[in-house]
Fold this protein.
Amino acid sequence: MMRRISRNEIRPLSAFLAEQFYETEPFQSAMKGIDPDKAKQLITEKYYEQLSHFLYERSAIFVSDRNINGMIMGVDSKNKMVYSYAPFIFDLIIKAFVLCSRGERRRILQNMKPLRELSTANWAKKYCHEAPYILAIIAIDKTSRGTGLCREMLEFFFDYAKTASTSHYITLETYTRENVPLYEHFGFRLAEKKTIADGSITEYRMIRKSGNEAAK
């Protein structure tokens, strides 16, 4: 069973997300050359915790009812805040810099420059006839993978999206090539992929259609 997260669970949720995604290529690239313990602190406290507070009233955040071993977040792209991340991310960087030396600040900013190529939600406009509902984050604890929790979470999310949005489209982005077949199994198709200039990171952009749109 899935349930909405409460505000007092944001801190443990942030630690959970940092643990699941710390080793992904975008974070590893952004934090290259930064002490691993400090990098994880920045990602937990100054990224996921601030992001979760920001999105708490603006999105649908659900966790596994058993405990926080699974989390899924939906965002309606009709909400203009989806296209206003730049000032928010800049604010996060300023807050993160309180914990960093001047040299670390320069390094992080330099590391993040190539990642700007991926920071857009506009790609879906080429493929969707209407503003999509976004599967913004899905995370499953390593110990819970292979237990059917992923299916439970996605089926719950699809049902929820039908009531939360009038759109026939759901989009998601993943940086893990191995995830693509998994999402295809649940009805998504790979619309396009975007690789940054140095070739180190590829974003896989996927779309799922429902209703009459699925037949097109």
Notes: The chain has a mean pLDDT of 85.
